[in-house]
Design a protein that fits this description.
It is a single chain. With 268 residues, this protein is α/β, with parallel strands linked by helices. The protein has one domain: Rossmann fold. The chain is built from seven helices and 15 strands. Helix 6 packs parallel to helix 7. The N and C termini lie close together (6 Å).
């Protein structure tokens, strides 16, 4: 079934309060998590933004709070959530400073945060029922397509939904290091040379390959989210989404910087 706007991002993704959701792939994971957390908090849910890898430190304001601890205490987290519903959780702040990407949409401080191990997050998820976990589980270095390394993605076993992301704006552009993270892996997977224009078929082959679904817990459902900058639906979006429907429980097309981010959602 195809559904059109007037739905929030968490609704389009099918996220329920109390779930643990891992975001992997490319095309705006940080922005997606930031918006999803804001929507959940606005509805009265308790939601935590965290990572199993590394992420830029958000510039928190108002009701935001940052908790840094290699093994966070569940009772301490529950207390923080009662006082500051926008909670960001990480193991530590890394030494040195980092410059956020010039076009980075989430206000950030010039530091990176080190993520928490999966076993620590699994314990916290079990100890804090009712809390929604939004977990950034890999990195893509600003590319629109992501090929995973052997150690990626890093997904806790308690995750109930995995959102696999990719950016539609690389469509038609050459397959290279600016459009695909680990482009050499992409050329091997697709059997095409560097510089080949990215077609909907090639794009879909990346998202439907087992490597894009690696590490997903057996009981978790898998959602694809195709992102774009323009609020006008990409000409190839619906045809591409249709190619993904056999692999994914739903496909969401979103302009994450728009006031109404959900452009379409195809659901089985």
């Amino acid at each position: 079934m195809l559904q059109w706007p007037a739905m929030k991002l968490v609704e389009a993704l099918g996220i329920q309060p109390g779930e643990a959701i891992a975001f992997v792939g490319a095309g705006g994971k940080t922005t997606a998590i930031w918006r999803a957390q804001a929507e959940l908090v606005a509805e009265g849910a308790r939601a935590i933004y965290t990572t199993t890898t590394k992420m830029m430190e958000p510039a928190l304001q108002g009701d935001g709070s940052l908790c840094l601890a290699p093994r966070p205490d569940a009772a301490r987290i529950a207390d923080l959530l009662n006082r500051a519903p926008h909670l960001v959780l990480a193991a530590r702040r890394l030494s040195g400073t980092y410059t956020p990407h010039a076009d980075h949409p989430v206000p950030s401080r010039p530091f990176k945060l080190d993520g928490l191990p999966t076993d620590v997050l699994d314990e916290l998820v079990a100890q804090l029922p009712g809390v929604t976990w939004l977990i950034e589980a890999d990195g893509a270095k600003g590319c629109g397509l992501k090929l995973h390394a052997a150690h990626e993605p890093v997904i806790p076993s308690h995750v109930t939904t995995v959102v696999v992301m990719a950016h539609l704006d690389v469509m038609g552009r050459p397959l290279d290091a600016t459009t695909a993270h680990r482009v050499d892996d992409a050329t091997r997977l697709l059997s095409v040379p560097i510089g080949t224009p990215i077609t909907p078929t090639l794009f879909a082959r990346v998202l439907c390959d087992e490597s894009s679904l690696k590490g997903v817990p057996k009981s978790a459902r898998v959602v694809a989210m195709l992102t774009q900058r323009s609020a006008a639906l990409h000409p190839a979006a619906l045809a591409l989404a249709d190619l993904l429907r056999e692999r994914y429980s739903r496909v969401v097309i979103a302009a994450l910087r728009a006031d109404d981010p959900v452009l379409a959602a195809l659901m089985q």
